[in-house]
Each structure stands twice: as structure tokens, then as C-alpha cells.
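Appendix B. Chain record.
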Amino acid sequence: MESYRYLLDIAIILLFTKAFGIFSKKLRMPSVVGALIAGIVLGPAVLNIVEPSNLISALSEIGVIVLMFSAGLETSITDLKKAGLKAFLIATLGVLVPLGVGYLIGMIYNVGPSAWIENLFIGVIFTATSVGITVETLKEMHCMSTESGNVILAAAVIDDVLGIICLTLVTALADSSVVISTVLLKILGFFVFSIVVGVAMHKVFKWWFSHDPNHGLQRYSIVSFAFALIMAYCAEEFFGVADITGSFVGGLIISGTAQCEYVTKRIGT
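C-alpha cells predicted for this chain:
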């Protein structure tokens, strides 16, 4: 019977998340705040009802991938380009300020000849952000398609990439086996890969629409979601970029393909 405990755990997670989400909305806060509190209550910090497992971790990862894919579908590439400079400045400050503050806090408690690298690592930890929470909050507030929403979303994605670069730099300082140039080339390779795949998908969907005037909803939805999962896998496995970034880019590619308005609206339903 112990092997079926995951069924009960999933049910408990769903019920608590929904209940706390409703309560959070009553307090005029995003439901994602209630979901976070539900996780704390169910976890080892409070009640310890739900124990971490590989299955729950995998399901949560899929959930965030779906969320980021949905965000990509609702994001305009044109609007994202317009927010480029603002988003980059915000993301840069969002990395440098926590990095500096974390380093200074580390200096207060950790002093020594080699303490600077440890303090720098503390600063890098402070730079970590959750793109998923940002997206969920923007979606709930219906701000995904607004100018400020595009800037925030773009900044969150850029911040994620910059965080990887910072972590790589600090790790390279502590471990000579880590090659910085290789990691940077992988990140650059991911974006080149995304552009190439985007052009190919544009042609595929253009051909598909021209040969399928009835627009089979189920076929487009399945292919689009499978494409998001493949992009997430490639990002994490081959380029060292977060899988949620890959799924977000997958959504952007689908939303930017020819005659995609039909696809994005239908998939969203």
C-alpha cells in the first residue's frame, strides 16, 4: 500500500493549494502566495505531511514548464523586443544589487583569507529568482500583455540567464575544472538554436495551415505542447539553460509563427 502513497500526497497538495489560494485571494493577494504557504505548511517545516519524492518533483517541474509555455504563447515577440533595453537594465540591477548585498552580509559573519569566494557565492545565491511565480502573478493580474508585464517577464528571463553566468563564474573561481568560455558558448548556442528552430517551425506551421484549412485543434495542441517539452529538454540537457526558459522560448516560437493567433487562442482554452 505504501507504493500508492503518492496518490494521497497529490490529492492533499491539490486541496491545500486550492484552499490556501482562495484564502489568499480573500486577502487581495495573488493565489500563488497561498500556494507557497500551502507548500510550507505541508512540508517538513510545519506539518511534514507530504514528503519530497521523485514523482512529486517531476510533476512540479512539468507544471512550471506548462506555465512558462503558456506565458510564451501570450507574449508578443514585438512587444518583448520593445522592452529589451529596459528589461536588460532591470535584470542587470536585479543581479548586481542582491550580489553586492549578499557579499557584504557574508563579510560581516565570515572573515578570512579565503572567505571572499564563499561570500561571493552567498551573493550569487541572493540573485536567484523564480520566473514561475512572476509569470503566475502576472497572469492572475491580467498583465501579461501589458507593457509593464512584458518588461517584467523579459527581465525575469534575462535575470535567469545572468544568474547562470554568475554562478558559473564563481564556480570557476573555486574549481579550475570549470571552463567559463564553454558555458557561455552553450548559452549563446541555445539562443542560436532557438532562432534556427523558430524559422523552421514558422515554415512548418505555414505549410500545415495551407494544407489543413479546417484547423484541427487537437493536432495543433498536441504538437505545440510536445514541441515545448522538447525545447525544455534541449535547453537543460544540451545547453545548460533552465528547462523553463526552453519552454518559454517554445511558446514564443509558436506565438510568432504564421497564422498563430488561432493556435494560441485555441491552445489557451
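Further analysis of this model is presented in Appendix C.
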